[in-house]
Amino acid sequence: MWRVAITIAGLDSGGGAGIHADIKTFAAMGVHGATALTCVTAQNTYEVREAQCLSPQLVRAQIMAVWDDMGIDAGKTGMLGTREIIEEVASVVGKLGFPLVVDPVMVAKSGAPLISEDAVDVLKRRLLPVAKVVTPNKPEAEKLTGMKIASVNDAEKAAEFIHKEYGTEIVVVKGGHLEGGEAIDVVYYRGSFHKFSTPRLESRATHGTGCAFSAAIAAGLAKGLDPLEAIKTAKQFIYTAIKYGVAKGKGHWPVNPTAWVEIPAERWRAYEELRAALEAIRKNAALFAKAIPEVQSNLGYVIDPRYAVDVNDVVAVPGRIVNYMGEARPSGPPAFGASSHTARKILALVGKDPNARSAMNIKYSPELVERARALGYKIAVVDRRKEPEEAKKIEGGSMKWVVGEALSQTGGTAPDIIVDLGDWGKEPQITVVGRTPTEVVEKVLRLLS
Ligand SMILES: Nc1ncnc2c1ncn2[C@@H]1O[C@H](COP(=O)(O)OP(=O)(O)OP(=O)(O)O)[C@@H](O)[C@H]1O
Ligand SMILES: Cc1ncc(COP(=O)(O)O)c(N)n1
Known about the structure:
- GO terms for molecular function: ATP binding; hydroxymethylpyrimidine kinase activity; phosphomethylpyrimidine kinase activity; thiamine-phosphate diphosphorylase activity.
- One of its GO terms (cellular component) is cytosol.
- It is an enzyme of class 2 (transferase).
- One of its GO terms (biological process) is thiamine biosynthetic process.
- Strand 2 (32-43) and strand 3 form a beta hairpin.
- The protein has helices at 18-28, 56-69, 83-96, 119-127, 138-145, 152-166, 209-222, 227-243, 259-283, 285-289, 341-352, 366-374, 389-393, 397-409, 437-448; strands at residues 4-12, 32-43, 48-53, 74-77, 100-102, 133-134, 170-173, 182-189, 192-199, 299-302, 314-316, 321-324, 327-330, 335-336, 358-363, 379-382, 417-420, 429-434.
- The strands form three sheets. Strands 3-2-1-4-5-6-7-8-9 form a nine-stranded mixed beta sheet, sandwiched between helices. The chain has a seven-stranded mixed beta sheet with strand order 14-11-10-15-18-17-16, with helices on both faces. Strands 12-13 form a two-stranded antiparallel ribbon.
- It is an alpha/beta fold.
- 41% of the residues lie in helices and 21% in strands.
- It folds into two domains: 4-256, 3-Layer(aba) Sandwich (UDP-N-acetylmuramoyl-L-alanine:D-glutamate ligase); 262-448, Class II aldolase/adducin N-terminal domain (L-fuculose-1-phosphate Aldolase).
- Bound molecules: adenosine-5'-triphosphate (ATP) and (4-amino-2-methylpyrimidin-5-yl)methyl dihydrogen phosphate (MP5).
- Adenosine-5'-triphosphate (ATP) binds next to strand 8, helix 7 and helix 8.
């Protein structure tokens, strides 16, 4: 069943925070996202240049238009701008009664105020009593309580105080601004404290974290999750969104709420593409058998380089592709992390050329190199005997050296084949490179035909 969540928040023209972060989060969490825009900001990752708020009446009209048509299962507020808008939102939410998550946004990451001074009191006295959840960060919790917060213990005291003083049912004091190896959020709910924690990421992508986090809680509530379950999921969600942040901008980079769905989708897509390419090998099994070297072949494919971290992000064939009685045969179905050698080669390639996402090693012969030349393939020839001792010593160093050597011959973009002439005890090989495993298999087929 489709659920509807509404964000009552401001627009960040840079798309990092505000309604952009919220709508991306709603979409990634599988709820329909509606919007009541409060203010427009001319903003990027390092500054807010201008801001203008809409009339409270127009904010109310947006909420009512959605309510009268689809209903609202849960909502969240972000930048509310003025005391008049806060009063209006408190009044309409109080009347409609849907569960509301209030992110008490006061100051942008870049330092600009997002709410007028006189509005904080209205937020405390009018909005917090009708909210189900409030998610202050450390400075916001300090402002709401007048306490100094330096530890988890302080955060617990502040959370309880906010509940008792303003009546919000659930208080989440976020630990993003606290010190320590873990980012610990403290929750006060029905007389008890709960802690939700993930490792603290050393990341530049923290613009919009509070927005996406509160939107994720609202999405969970819209789906009918128990509040603690919704907060737990939101915590995992925000960890992924920070880890795979959008590497863009001169200031605090935007968080990436769509990583939550994009990464699993990418992995599935890569798996399916590799499976299809292996099918093509099976169909030409006798031909491919001729190309299997002593060390056997592997064919690998890395997920979108924006998300690739290590060999576990490369799908390949466990047990490699073998020559079984004159037929090339994958030893098993594709799996992530199944190859170390091919995976590291692909990671080195994609680090230099984002299009070089797939590779397969085949047997070396001077005839195949000649054939590649005749086909007009871009060829790089690497002499392993020239590899410096230092490269051999570093983990994955050899592969990086081979790839660096190869790409220096082809102007920085990947060649179609890398001819590795081998070394003492190292079989010479050819690596066929392409954008997808299907393209690699087609290139190998042309070489062998
Ligand atoms: N570096 C980090 N590593 C891991 N988690 C983090 C990090 N920074 C923030 N978080 C988590 O992200 C969520 C948002 O917390 P934060 O304290 O940054 O909110 P905020 O300051 O309100 O964000 P914003 O400034 O975008 O409004 C919390 O769950 C927090 O623990
Ligand atoms: C429109 C709008 N809403 C919210 C924030 C807070 O996000 P951050 O603290 O990450 O800058 C923002 N900067 N702009």
